[in-house]
Amino acid sequence: MLERAPQPVERQLPTDEARDLISLVRDIAQREIAPKAAEEEDAGRFPREVFTLLSESGLLGLPYDSEYGGGEQPYEVYLQVLEELSAARLTVGLGVSVHTLASYAVAAYGTKGQQVEHLPAMLGGGLLGAYCLSEPSSGSDAASLRTRAVRDGDEWVINGTKAWITHGGIADFYTVMARTGADGPRGITAFLVPADAEGLGAAAPEKKMGMKGSPTAQVNFDGVRVSDARRIGEEGQGFAIALSALDSGRLGIAACAIGVAQAALDAAVAYATGRQQFGRPIADFQGLRFMLADMATQIEAGRALYLSAARLRDAGRPFAKQAAMAKLHCTDTAMKVTVDAVQVLGGYGYTADFPAERYLREAKVLQIVEGTNQIQRMVIARHLAGPETR
Questions:
Q1: Are 140 and 371 a contacting pair, CB within 8 Å?
Q2: Which are the catalytic amino acids?
Q3: How far is CA 342 from CA 261, 266, 270, 291, 363, in A?
Q4: Which of 114, 113, 116, 85 shows the shortest CA–CA distance to 99?
Q5: Which pairs count as long-range contacts for 84-87, CB under 8 Å and 24+ apart, including other chains?
Q6: Which pLDDT tens digit goes with each residue over 243-272?
Q7: pLDDT of the residue at 3
Q8: 0.90 exceeded by the pTM?
Q9: How many of the other CB atoms lie within 10 Å of CB of 72?
């Protein structure tokens, strides 16, 4: 029996424009992204030309206003684009999600003048962004960050180090959270820092178990000067901006996770229907059939969960709890599905000749970034039972 070719995901999209958009993304993914993914990930190569193409195609600003070059698409559509890109290569899907996160502060909290000046280049001008919140000593406890910005006339001078920065060293702009006041969350302010600012530099990229094509690096600020015109929002509002951005960013990670899980399922089905043992395809054996069925069910449940949260966001309703649930469930699902995909492929699943092992290594990081899954459980519990007593 010949192996079954992967079937495109059946998507419920709200408009003809959204359906055309998904068709465009699938075409780019199949022609420009997927064929090079394994080789370039193994070589640790970042596909900047792909992001240039995505920008030229209007895919780097999908959820933002068309007035500034965005696609003005609902999150329900934007997240499904992320899923398609991540299924082709997580470095690309996650990169688009991070760029969207980095653009959020200006789009949601910037002044009209800041939006006019910066957003067109950020959303459709070929720029690539990075989001700087975490530090070597403050990850989950982001409110304890130490990077400091001190006012000097009409400028701010930034000193400190940010850690685990996706696109660190290759981004064109950095959305930076820095302390401008007292300790705690109310002493943090957001800044838009250009990559060519004097005193800004990046360390060598981290050596990671997966996503080797996506550079993750510490970013150092050594007396970096930015004008007050690059302060986003009010002084002391930065932590609120960061949390608001992360609610949406967690939905992006959820969609990326389902993309990876879907790719792993497709690889497992193709292998199981083509691999012959005992005179028939191994997909005929009930043990494997049930594994495939469970994998597909978990993926569909995750997709429904992130889309439900996205529709709340699109309707202007609170969605923080649902975003945390989606991030938690979808990334745990990606981890389980990719482990099972390796098992379906058996010994071949453990080799780099097949993509299952890469999907497994990539899935792991999604349980960590933009709030570990332990933090997501804390967020969900607070919505259910209130803050922890001290």
A1: yes
A2: 370
A3: 12, 12, 13, 12, 12
A4: 85
A5: 84/9, 84/22, 84/25, 84/26, 84/29, 84/259, 85/25, 85/29, 85/33, 85/259, 86/255, 86/256, 86/257, 86/258, 86/259, 86/260, 86/263, 87/29, 87/259, 87/260, 87/262, 87/263, 87/266
A6: 999 999 999 999 999 999 999 999 999 999
A7: 58
A8: yes
A9: 13
